[in-house]
Specification:
The protein is an all-alpha fold. It has one domain (about 25-155). The protein has six helices and no strands. It has helices spanning about 25-30, 35-40, 40-50, 60-100, 100-130, 140-150. The longest helix is centred in the middle third of the chain and has 39 residues, at about 60-100. The radius of gyration is 19 Å and the shape is elongated.
Length: about 160
């Protein structure tokens, strides 16, 4: 039987938890999972500034594009946050398994399932937002839709 995750044999057995090198990201990852302290204040500030609508004559189209890109970027960051949270919960479940704490392990697996489900829902929201926009014919937006299709195809959307 081949060890590894199918793509990188050095990653080890995925049933043993997250690869050791990923643990170095742990402090950063945990901070990014605190939405009240990281994303939400900036999100509200951006929305408030963009919704003022004070632009030069003829620049309304650029403002609409900037608002669209900002909303899409916020949605994308929320997707990444949920996806990362799922991996953190997955790792915590296997840490609990190593400590023989079955209740904590099951709780973390439940959290992992919830966060990956949230990721799937957030991906759908972001893709629908991209596809329904007036800017969907822009080559950049077409490329982003393509990348979402490639990256999140395994989520069986």
């Amino acid at each position: 039987m081949r060890e590894g995750n199918g793509r990188n044999p050095a990653a080890g057995n995925s049933f043993d938890g997250v690869a050791p090198w990923l643990r170095r990201l742990d402090p950063w990852a945990r901070r990014s999972m605190q939405p009240a302290k990281s994303l939400l204040p900036s999100e509200e500030s951006l929305r408030r500034r963009l919704s003022s609508g004070q632009v030069s004559p003829g620049a309304q189209h650029e403002l609409e594009y900037l608002i669209f890109k900002t909303e899409t970027y916020i949605s994308h960051l929320q997707t990444i946050r949920a996806f990362l949270g799922g991996f953190i919960a997955y790792d915590a479940a296997f840490r609990a398994k190593q400590k023989k704490d079955e209740k904590q392990m099951l709780d973390q697996f439940d959290m992992c399932e919830f966060l990956f489900s949230e990721t799937r829902d957030q991906v759908l929201k972001t893709v629908k937002q991209l596809a329904a926009s007036a800017f969907v014919e822009d080559p950049t937006e077409k490329y982003l839709l393509f990348r979402y299709n490639v990256r999140f195809d395994a989520l069986d959307l």
